[in-house]
What we know:
The complex is a heterodimer.
Chain A lengths: L2 H12 L7 H16 L4 H18 L9 H21 L8 E4 L17 E3 H27 L2 H6 L6 H30 L6 H29 L10 H26 L9 H21 L12 H23 L18 H9 L3 H4 L23 H16 L1
Antiparallel strand pairs in A: 1-2
Helix pairs in contact in A: 2-3, 2-5, 2-11, 3-5, 3-12, 4-5, 7-8, 9-10, 11-12
Chain B lengths: L1 E9 L8 E8 L4 E5 L6 H8 L2 H4 L4 E8 L2 E2 L12 E4 L3 H4 L5 H11 L4 H14 L15 H13 L5 E5 L7 H18 L2 E5 L3 H4 L5 E5 L5 E4 L1 H4 L8 H9 L8 H7 L1 H7 L20 E12 L2 E12 L3 E5 L6 H9 L6 E5 L10 H7 E4 L12 H12 L5 H9 L14 H13 L5 E5 L7 H16 L3 E5 L3 H7 L2 E6 L2 E7 H6 L7 H6 L7 H14 L1
Parallel strand pairs in B: 3-8, 3-9, 6-7, 7-8, 13-17, 13-18, 15-16, 16-17
Antiparallel strand pairs in B: 1-2, 1-4, 4-5, 9-10, 11-12, 11-14, 18-19
Helix pairs in contact in B: 4-5, 4-6, 6-7, 15-17, 16-17
Amino acid sequence: MSSSRITAGLTARFRIPRSLHPGAWWLWALGMATAASRTTNPLLLLLIVAVCGYVVVQRRGDAPWALAFRMYLLLGAFIVFMRVVFRIVFGGGQGETVLFTLPEVPLPEWTAGIRLFGPVAAEQLLSGLYDGLRLATMLVCVGAANALANPKRMLKALPGALYEIGTSVVVALSVAPQLVESVQRIRRARRLRGGTQRGMRALRGILIPVLEDALTRSLALAAAMASHGYGRTGRTAPAARLLTGFLVLTGLLGVCAGLYGVMDSSVPAYLGAPALLAGLAVATAGLLLGGRRVRRSRYRPDRWRTAELLTVAAGVTAGALMYVTTKVDPADLYPSLSPMTWPTLGLLPALTVLVGLLPAWLTPPPALTPPQRAGPEHDEPARTHPAAEENARRETSKETVS
Amino acid sequence: MITFDEVTFTYSGADEAVLRDMDLRIGEGELCLVTGRTGVGKSTLLGAVNGLVPRFTGGHLHGRVEVAGQDTRDFPPQEFAHLVGVVGQDPLAGFVTDTVEEELAYGMEQLSLRPEVMRKRVEETLDLLGIAELRHRALRTLSGGQQQRVAIGSVLTTHPKVLVLDEPTSALDPTAAEEVLAAVVRLVHDLGTTVVVAEHRVERVLQYADRLVHLTGDGGVRDGDPAELMLDSDVAPPVVHLGRLAGWRPLPLSVRDARRQAAGLRERLSPQLPDVPSTASTQRGPESGAGLTARRVVVSYGSLIAVRDVDLELRRGEVVALMGRNGSGKSSLLWALQGSGPRRSGTVDVAGSDPGELSARAARALVGLVPQTASDLLYLETVEAECAQGDTEAGATPGACRQLLDGLAPGVPGDRHPRDLSEGQKLALVLAVQLVAAPEVVLLDEPTRGLDYHAKRRFTESVRALAGEGRSVVVATHDVEFTAGAADRVVVMAEGEVVADGPTADVVVSSPAFAPQVSKILHPQTWLTVDQVAAALAPQEASA
């Protein structure tokens, strides 16, 4: 058997469609966001957005959340726009290249330092643009993770100690559409009674049945969860639970401080990597301690396999290399504003960003739902709505077909 | 398997115990049917099996409840998860996850079973209940019968020894109910699961029951062989009433048993024809005009067509039963006729005007609708307040609503919170609120859900009385026995279209799904209800 055939077989197995572990996409996206936070060069930032966009288009599934990426792009554009507008309104007037002058609004003495309108300089517009673009790019990175990873599976992948929180979030997520549905149902019912009331009284007529409905449902859900065995191991000592909580929270705070330190190069060095590592260690200890007492298993858990590791490696490499580049050659990363120069795309930073593109080929394609299941009717609220009957009817007719 | 030992249970604040000194032993592999009128404590009894009562309901439980030797006093409901599987009245309210496969696995995850075991059991359960093709579907998009089967599946995956089902078929159409019950019977036969089931529609479950537990309503309980207890039970399906009337022994519990004994009765009845309900429009002469005329009504939601080109004419003084499987467009049609629901095209004409083009107030004076969840219409603290509000809304004289309510259900306490009323009283209250506006056409969507036989009989009388006053009444229902007793005419819908429309006897007798028990037993004769048979036999008995 030739080695090429073995490779071919491996590749074929590797390329079986499946969805990646959500954690892998998140780590990749965080790596890209770190890279973005290290530069204001618009060319580099746009390159990062392009890389994220390409990977999303190649590897997202067909679920509703996968379509949210467009929303993040729009939000990013909005951020950039707002930044520039703010620079015009609260001018500040730095920069010599005045493009045009707006009539200044006189402000009282005590607002010293703040100026409304006045001369608008090219430097100040550019700095707003760069700043906004950086923020927008980081947001787009997060959006990419959201589009690529199933948020519910991400919650399921949480460590055992956080299981309860994960469950609460899942339940809360399902409550929102239910509430909307009961409001609709009861508003329709109110119409049946004539619906002559306005204002507070009408609100009361809707609110009370909705709240009653929600309460009854949550009691029913709690009872159902208990009879399914939820919380079977709730007999740990309170002290152990307290310790776990303390460790996890302190650790997470440490991680936050550390991340801040890493992202912002102006803070003292000890707040950077050391704080991040210490925080991670404490949080991990807490989670392990908490996870030990949890006896619960997972149905079809997401596993870390080669593709996941490669994805994370790509993201982390991009972030880390950019971090290193800041130390070596920061000129390309922060284009000068005074004097104004054209931003240039250095070879090293560009290559660094392009590393993030690798998951578009190194991961298996996403598993798409078969066409007969995907469809707009599944997003509609069902139950006691006349539409529900219709849905059910369609389901039955489908069954007879299949 | 399940032992109740001297159990007395009192809800907090209640004067009387719901269950009193109850002793009950249910053996392994039994299918045990719990019957009783509304509010006698069937759900309480079911909840006590795994300790949800009193841990989730409050109240005081005296005595001992054990499942497989494990006492509910010593362990919370969680620790019964591997022994007892509980499926509540509304399966959708009990779903924790959002897809079929995850819901099936949820219980096993809590019991910390190994992943390979879980994979295997999920597949087995999908096949056992015939829901394999639904595995990736979102739970909310399933039909009622499918949801019920998924809910049963989600507790079966942990291989419980006991399965507790509260009203598993009351919201389902006859065919879906058959599917669910077939799955349950299969469990009892193949896996030896003990099943405890409470059901108002006793006629659906009785034939499968090995044992009957009858709650008498005063806290007491009678249990034993179904055929023996049914001899004088106050909750009995038509087949049992017919058996009592004809004096068959042993008392038949299923249509099949009854048919084998029915040859004699058919012979006695053969010279006669069933007495058609007297208020039928044909006998009312000139004043019986059209109450509502609908032409080419189409209702659509986006690209879905819920009601397709339906023509419907309702005559005055006529009760029409609207039947069809879950999701055939019945509710959509009712809402469109009333004018509050969407209507894409077509016309509705009530006394010269179209309710869809009028204000909500004017529309309800023409057509009154009682929706599926009738309690959505109620939002005040007392029955009196609701009645007063009803009078104001309709611009009627004060006290009119209360008077109507007393006509429908006498003796509803005025200071009671509407939530604490029985299902029958609640329905009467909502109906009264809608009737104050004096609509000529009354539409009722699934009103008999949750009503016991007595409440249903009273409700049948109310519906007939409404028709007797010259109103047109439409009742959308899955309840074939109610249809047989109350309706002059049956309209069957499927896929949004009317597939059958005619006098009750003509439509239901020939249909395997919609035929009432009496009709199945006495086929090919066209008797529909026990009352008809009794009326026919009475002169014979008198002369003999």
